Amino acid sequence: MIIGEIKRYLRDNNSVRVSRSLRDLAYRALQAKEVISRRDCKDATIDEIVEELNKDGDTKTKEEVSRALEAISAPISIYDPVYGDGDDSLYVMDQLRDDSASEESWLESIALREALKNLSEREKTILNLRFYKGRTQMEIASEIGISQAQVSRVEKGAIERIKKEM
Q1: CA–CA separation, 39 vs 20, rounded Å?
Q2: Which of these, 66, 67, 78, 68, lies nearest to 7 by C-alpha position?
Q3: Between residues 165 and 87, the one the model is more confident about
Q4: Cα 60 from Cα 156, distance rounded (Å)
Q5: For a designed S-S bond to 68, which of 25, 56, 138, 155 qualifies (C-beta 3.0 to 4.6 A apart)?
Q6: Is-contact 33 13, C-beta < 8 A?
Q7: Which of the four pLDDT bands, split at 50, 70 and 90, describes residue 88?
């Protein structure tokens, strides 16, 4: 139910507009593709389309033509089937993955969180100010009322403890 409402909203209130010049280039590229397909009896490559467009005096690059053609292509839903074999269908979302969230990085994140729990409040404060807030050791020292050397020692000790626990 809610997916249909979102699709309807996006269809009716399309906030992404493709510029007229980009659309014109895309349509000229499609016409050039059709000419090449009829003439050579094969699908045209981007390089061939660019060459055909440039015959008319245009100086379009491969990137410009590719971008224009992508801009006019209809968006697809992650729920659209890519392949279907009876009851077993493969959807676009089945092909998506997040390489940044590997199992190893996930486990490292949990281990880091657990190691941080075992630090003292002072160590946590110093590491937070140093690495999350981007402060220098001198700034931290003046903020919490200790010397820069003490900040350095606490920081180094906390990092060593985290390494041992991981």
Answers
A1: 28
A2: 78
A3: 165
A4: 56
A5: 25
A6: no
A7: confident
As a whole number of angstroms, the distance between CA 130 and CA 139 comes to 9
pLDDT in tens, 20-40: 899 999 999 999 999 999 999
- DSSP codes joined into one string, the chain: -HHHHHHHHHHHT------HHHHHHHHHHHHHHHHHHHHHSSPPPHHHHHHHHHTTT----HHHHHHHHHHHSPP--TTSEEEEETTEEEEGGGG---TTS-HHHHHHHHHHHHHHHTS-HHHHHHHIIIIIS---HHHHHHHHTS-HHHHHHHHHHHHHHHHHH-
The tokens describing 127, both together, are 């590491």
Q: Which domains does the chain have, with CATH numbers?
A: 2-81 (no CATH), 103-165 (1.10.10.10)
